[in-house]
Sequence to fold (434 residues):
Amino acid sequence: MNYISLNHNSKKVNFENALINGLAPDKGLYFPEYIPKLSTKLFKNIDNISNNEIAYKVIKPFVGNCVDKNNLIKIIEDTLSFEFPLKQINNLIYSLELFHGPTLAFKDVGARFMARFLGYINEKKRNKKITVLVATSGDTGGAVASGFNNIEGIDVVILYPKNKVSKIQEKQLTTLGNNIYALEVDGDFDDCQNMAKNIFVDDQINNEIDITSANSINVGRWLPQTFYYFFAYKEIIKRGLTNKKNVFSVPSGNFGNICAGLLSKLMGLPINHFISSTNINNVIPIFLKTGQYKPKKTIKTISNAMDVGNPSNFIRIQNLYKNDFHKLKKIMSGYYFSDSQTSNEIYNVFKKHNYILDPHGAIGYLGLKKFLSSNENYFGVFLETAHPIKFLEIVEKKIKEKIPVPKQIKNILNKNGNKTPISNYNELKSFLLK
Ligand SMILES: *Cc1c(COP(=O)(O)O)cnc(C)c1O
Fold:
């Protein structure tokens, strides 16, 4: 498999180089040259196949010969060392819990896969240090930091917006130490993302250091996100939930996650419909309504990991459907919700179903509920993308109860973090070059 640049001004490269480059030299996102189709046999028998085997079959066509079978299996086993339960909320709604990894958010899957793959490349073929640069609106940074912690030959630099991530998120970024460096940017997520994008095409930087991105723009993080759609489908088959059509509601920000879902469908996974559920940063729901894509300045919300005004992966979604707006519209609906709707729903679902949503999952839930209210022949799954403890300030105030602290974060709560404040591009550049 080769990857082309969506700006169409760079050479195509294999998986390894797409992963190392992050962004193509012409600033375009990498995109697979073709969409591999999986055999329908896989889907009929999927309830008899282990998650690791499913993941192998899904990712193998994308990585091609960049890794041998045994090492790929090992990378997958290491990546998927936790559960992906599907919990029933009511007769039509299921929560796909993607927060059982080390940093309690779905980004652990992509980040762990990428970290292990890069570690493998580095060990086999290189001896120069690689720097991984990542901009985060909240959860990416923690997942990447944890995924790469103590991986040999790799330094990680994280850019996060000052005062715009939760306390626990900040702890996750700043308390690991070792090869992980946290930079607190005086700005918002879009500023962080723009700085990162410019670094990757900065000649001086590229001459002096080996640098790559670990944002969802990196194919090493984006593609493994297909896995859990397949795992969820396996549960659907296991439970015989096939007399209605299925719809997946994905709380979305940069649109990498839902883009992986759409890709899974094009590979053959029998998902009937997708919902992109957003907060008030609603460029895509508006696009789906009007056909006009109008990026906006980011607005701060309580679902901060989705505060993105110009989603990077939109162009990949457009390419998956060959820029055919009507085709895309048939597959994907879009809804957006305010902070007060979100926090009220956290309260309602807790009272009614004794289930604690985080603000992102709550938006996924709201989108699903809205879709189901006018589509009777469907049942649905929403992606619960983060553990509610990550947003305890918001959630506990609403439900008026303490959320049990999961084991993954017990030990960081009392640690003091280490961060370096920066306010402009040149400061970032000199940090990287020193
Ligand atoms: C990153 C994130 C999202 C948004 O995912 P995208 O792939 O950027 O659309 C949603 N929820 C949580 C908890 C996240 O961390």
